[in-house]
Amino acid sequence: MLTMYSTPWCGYCKRLKSQLDREGIEHEVVDIEQDPAAAEFVMSVNGGNQTVPTVLIVPPNGGEQIVMTNPSIVQVKQALAA
């Protein structure tokens, strides 16, 4: 499962979301301005900063979670393939 932490005004988030849609990659978008727990998670993995997009990939087989900050679509696809 892929979760993208985002804000409505983030241009990088909009670009990545459109690329995920175009590639047919299922994802959930979480607005960190509306979800305090999501904002806390983003800060916990970004040195206290609310940097978006932050992507969380949870492998279906229970493998290790992958967290990426402002990744390219290529990096996302590589992480999903791993």
Automatic annotation (TrEMBL):
**Xref: CDD domains:** NrdH (cd02976)
Q: Which NCBIfam families match?
A: GlrX_actino
Protein name per its UniProtKB record: Mycoredoxin
Q: What is the lineage of its organism?
A: Bacteria, Bacillati, Actinomycetota, Actinomycetes, Micromonosporales
List where this protein forms a coiled coil: none
Sequence ranges assigned to domain Glutaredoxin in this UniProt record: 3-57
At the top level of its lineage, which domain of life is listed? Bacteria
Q: PROSITE patterns of this UniProt entry?
A: GLUTAREDOXIN_2, THIOREDOXIN_1
- What is the native source organism of this protein? Micromonospora sonneratiae
- What is a single Pfam family found in this protein's UniProt entry? Glutaredoxin
